[in-house]
Write a structure and sequence with these properties.
By secondary structure, chain A is an all-alpha fold. Chain A contains nine helices and no strands. Chain B is mostly helical. Classes of the chains: A mainly alpha, B mainly alpha. At the A-B interface, helix 1, helix 2, helix 3, helix 4 and helix 5 of A face helix 3, helix 4, helix 5, helix 6 and helix 7 of B.
Chain lengths: 206, 188
Amino acid sequence: MSAFLPLPVLASAAAHCQPVSLGDWRNLLAVIWDFLSLSLFSLGGGNTLLSEYHQMAVDQYCWLNSRQFADLYAIAEAAPGPSSMLVGLLGMGAAIREGPLWGLVSGVGAEVAILLPSTVVMVVASISWNRWRDSAWRVAFERGLGPITLGILFAVGLKILRISDHDTPAYAVSAVVCVLMLRSRIPPLWFMAVAALLGGLGLVNR
Amino acid sequence: MTSSRPLEAPAPSPSHLELFLGMQQVALSSFGGGLSAWSERIVVEERRWLNQAEFLTGLTVARLFPGPNQVNMAVYIGSRFHGLSGALIAIAGLLLIPFSLLLLLGLAYYQLHMLPAVDRLLAGVITASAGMAISMGFKLVGAYSRDPMALLLAAVSFLAMTVFHVRLIPLVLVLGPLAMAWYWPRQR
């Protein structure tokens, strides 16, 4: 385990600002609070949070640069399980400078913080659903928040596209994947595999 | 597996351990995709914890409330039998293996991403994931195409975020109540 590289990685990670260290407990509390409060705004399955995550990890706390954020997003999408586990990878990035063990602890902590509030609400909702089912609040919430979620998802998609793609072939691949996601039933993993191949061959670049 | 189904007799309610193992089975079966289909097969058909209608209600609730849909579905199933502790154990069952795997990938990433070969592969993969990201909005837009107010709300939230850099929480706190007032069900 001591064979871990000295992480030149993060030296170059965010030259534009100083990474915020979690060693100071006030920073730690601020970060935990950020994840806890975002939890209840994860509408539409959680993808609405992606630009907030980017804002936090890249602009506000400087744990990562945009390029690394795009990489981690892609890894979370490609790996099995809910893609919202991306938060674990971001949390890991916040503490990986202190070593892999702290990276793991921080990753687990971030994931717990992002899931806890929404889980508590969901428990209450599941147990008392019969009381809410026909309530005007439920109808208005569902119909009102739907279009807002839609607008946010477009904004988030655009943001991811901006931080991911840099040459014309790369944009073309994204466009093709988008169309195929909507028009075909090809499993997403195939797109990832083909795109990785294109990248490996140097046909798409950033 | 067992195709002998005597008129949907519900199984006795699962213990914590059974919940954990059942959700773990869901997670493992869905490696490669199709989580919600696997979840239905295992939870409804094999283990008979919920019937079809209850499962669909669960999906509705899981999508409506904040949180990742699959995680919320696990909460719905777990809390039905054992309240909060059931919910937590169901999440643990669902996430333990995939999340551990993802953390290992993360450690590998933070060690290796400066290698040119890794960087080139990822440069490819992100083009696909960016395409998936923009498809999320297009997937939903059809449902609102004949509701001008919905399209206006979507446009306002899109512009607020991309052009005016409004953060998510204030955006939802301001637009959300306005939209709810507009869509408040009126008795006729």
